[in-house]
Every structure is written in structure tokens, then in C-alpha cells.
Amino acid sequence: MTTVAIVDDQAMVRQGLRLILELGGLEVVGEAEDGAQGVAVVRQHEPDVVLMDVRMPRLDGIEATRRIVAEGLPTRVLVLTTFDLDQHVYDALRAGAAGFLLKDVTADRLVAAVQETAAGETPMSGPVLRRVVDQFVRRLPDPDSARRLDVLSEREAEVLALVGTGLSNPEIAERLFISVATVKSHVRHILAKLDLRDRVQAVVLAHESGLVAAGPDGRAEPDR
To answer: What is the pLDDT of residues 129-145, one digit of tens each?
Structure first.
């Protein structure tokens, strides 16, 4: 059974999330009302997933996420926020969060997202991911990040650039006239070569390295 911890400073929100998750067949192993308590709960129980609020007293969800990842704990962080495209969401992803959902998500989608997160996937819909990408596409490239891409083949760099624009595997396959299975294989190799945990980190790196830039309409597109 998938295990979950809930970190949110509002008791009613925690109660509601617990009810939804337990009705969905998941086991809630702990709760916390701020990031510091959240890190402690994760250390104690090592749940498969922690649902992490962003804005909390004492220690916010971004720093809590950073500490969980830095300690090498096996728990994956799924950020829940009321702020669509909030700056803090991007910071949370950079800190190592596996993905994020808005708090108005349906109960069924929340349960599915937790299960996806536990399975190593990135529970972020294509449209939401594209909005995140477009919000931060104008950030200046980082030379150190760009040098990391030297280990990739030309095709892998091409796939990474398309991942960075928010395209799904089927959309990348259609764009490159290759199979979805081939795209998945390229993505696996990219993550392994660049020592990235998941697709979210790949998106961030694609932007920080300058592999993705803003097109004429301001939207993200491969810079090659």
C-alpha cells in the first residue's frame, strides 16, 4: 500500500486530504503543520510520498523539500499549492519536488497523482507544465548547466529540448517521427547521463542550460 504524509499549516486541509487519501486506498502515516515538522515526519516514517504545502510558518515547503532531498530520503515530494504559476512553485521544483498540483484538484486526480508520484512519475499535466515552462523561459542560461549537456548525443539533446518545452512523450514522438518507446528510452538515458531524478529536473536543466528559449510569441521552444 502506498504511504503518504501530509504537511499543511491548516488543520481542516489536512483532515480533508487524509479523508480523500484513505478513501482512495492510501495509508496516511503522519501529518505536520509546518516544514520543520514535515521533515521530522518524513525522517521517522519515510513515506512513499509527502504532500507538501508551500507557504507555512517556521519553515516553508521549499526549504523542507530541499532538506528532504539533500538528506537522500526515499520520499518523493508532491507540492500542493493554491497559487498557479507562483514563483515558489518553480523554486520548489528546483529544490527537488517531483511535481505539483493545485489544491482545487479533484479527489480522484489527487489519489492518482500520489500513486503516480510513488511510481516515479511526474504528476503534472501537460498544460500546467507548459505554463510553468513559459513563465520562466526568459531566465538567463547558466554556463555550468550548459556544459553538463556535453555528455548527450545530438538526438538526446534534441529530445531534452522538446521535454523542456513541456511536450509529452507521444508529442515528442510525433515531432521527431519516432516511436513513443524510443522517446522513453532516450529520456531514460538522458536522466541517467545527467544524474537527474525525474522529468521535472530535466525541464529545469533544459532552461537553465539555454537549450530552450522564448520564441517570437513568448512561448518556449527549442533553441536549435
So the answer is: 656 666 655 555 667 77
Closest CA to 223 of 170, 165, 168: 165
Question: Is residue 98, in this structure, part of any structural domain at all?
Answer: yes
Domain range enclosing 149: 135-222
> Which of 95, 124, 153 lies at the terminal end of a domain, its last residue?
124
Residue 130 covered by a domain: no
CB-based contact 111:26 (threshold 8 Å): yes
Q: Does any domain span residue 184?
A: yes
Sign of the CA dihedral 196, 141, 160, 200?
A: positive
Distance of CA 49 to the CA centre of its chain: 12
Give the count of domains, the chain.
Answer: 2
Where residue 153 falls (left for φ over 0; alpha for ψ -120 to 50; beta otherwise) is beta
Strands 49-53 and 99-102: unpaired
The model's pLDDT over 161-218, given as tens digits with 9 standing for 90+, comes to 998 887 888 889 999 999 999 999 999 999 999 998 788 788 888 888 888 765 444 4
Dig out the grid coordinates for 210 from the structure. 539555454
